[in-house]
Design goal:
The protein is of the alpha+beta class and 187 residues long. It has one domain. It has five helices and seven strands. Strands 4-3-5-7-6 form a five-stranded antiparallel β-sheet. Strands 1-2 form a two-stranded antiparallel sheet. Helix 1 runs antiparallel to helix 5. The protein is elongated and about 100 Å long.
């Protein structure tokens, strides 16, 4: 006996669209979890211990910078504050980290937070299609610090790769403008 379609195609199309939107929301939720974990990882990397002496003539501390360690010294906290993420869905921001400033020895990180957020927002236009997680360190010198062998976002990128695999999300890593900061394209 032949079958006959009784549901109108418009209703089938609407149901498919609802399912696609629900799947996109689920992917964005998972990417947000990954983004938050990456930001927490990158911002919480320990810096080296400093030896601080007091200069009584100048009335200020003297700093003795330790030998090379994987963690960097973030005097102003701008570099750590510039680390964040944005999730882009078809060219629009679906979710973005808060880029909350952290306090440093010589600064409050406000400039870093502003530059990190602005950098992430500029990258959105480069992804008009698909769903993308972009993790950034938005200070202009982030790439320089990373090239010197310090871990700015490397461990966060490795964590993202592991988590994407655990969540079953296909990923591609692509450097931005030659920097070490990466985007996770769930294409």
């Amino acid at each position: 006996m032949p079958t006959r379609q009784t549901t109108k195609m418009a209703e089938v199309d609407r149901q498919i669209e609802r399912l696609v939107e629900a799947a996109k929301r689920a992917i964005v939720r998972r990417l947000a979890i990954i983004g938050e974990m990456c930001v927490n990882k990158a911002r919480s990397l320990p810096g080296p211990s400093l030896t601080v002496f007091w200069d009584s003539e100048k009335g200020q501390p003297l700093r003795s910078i330790p030998k090379h360690t994987p963690g960097y010294i973030d005097w102003t906290a701008n570099l750590r504050s510039s680390i964040g993420y944005v999730i882009v869905v078809d060219g629009e921001i679906a979710k973005m980290s808060t880029f909350e400033p952290v306090k440093g020895m010589d600064g409050d990180g406000t400039q870093g937070a502003q530059e990190g957020k602005a950098f992430a927002e500029r990258l959105v236009a480069e992804y008009p299609h698909g769903i993308v997680l972009i993790v950034v360190a938005g200070m202009k010198y982030a790439e320089y610090v990373q090239r010197k062998g310090y871990d700015v976002t490397v461990s966060a990128e490795l964590l993202a790769e592991q988590l994407l695999e655990q969540f079953g999300i296909k990923s591609k890593t692509k450097p931005i403008d030659g920097s070490k900061d990466s985007q996770r394209d769930t294409g």
